[in-house]
Amino acid sequence: MKGGRMEKKRILIVDDEKSMRHLVAEVLGTQDYEITMANDGVEAIKQIDKEFYDLIITDYMMPQMDGLELTCRIKARYPFMPILVVTGRAPVQDLLKNGATACIMKPFDIFELRCLVKTILNRGIQGIDEKNP
Residue 128's closest CA among 104, 106, 102? Predict the structure, then answer.
């Protein structure tokens, strides 16, 4: 807490599609989170090494480094950092086995995304599959 106020939770959104990054940022920005964005996994790793984040939200399908590889790299360095993977089609069980906290399938409902993010941040939950809780 700074000056009697709680600090905002910090979220890093990683997606190679600018429109998706901005959509997720807009949806979550209304919830009083501090949002940062990265274009890909390589940029995300650089940002994570410089700054602390309470949650990483990443797309699965990205060039250079997909969401599974990004999840593995983050967990190797920061094992307790929660990661939410947004995907249209991905090996959900592999993602969860390799450290993803949760997966949400595209197209997702904005309310579901907000609720899932809030749950992860408030409860520190581990290993949730949004479609199969």
Answer: 102
Category of 70 on φ-ψ map: left (φ > 0), alpha (ψ -120 to 50) or beta: alpha
CATH architecture for the domain at 10-128 = 3-Layer(aba) Sandwich (3.40)
Domain-wise residue ranges, the chain: 10-128
| Tens-level pLDDT at each residue, the chain (133 residues) | 455 456 889 999 999 999 999 999 999 988 889 999 999 999 999 999 999 999 999 999 999 999 999 999 999 999 999 999 998 887 889 999 999 999 999 899 999 999 999 999 987 554 444 444 4
Phi, psi (deg, nearest 5) at residue 119: -65, -45
How far apart CA 59 and CA 34 sit, in angstroms, is 19
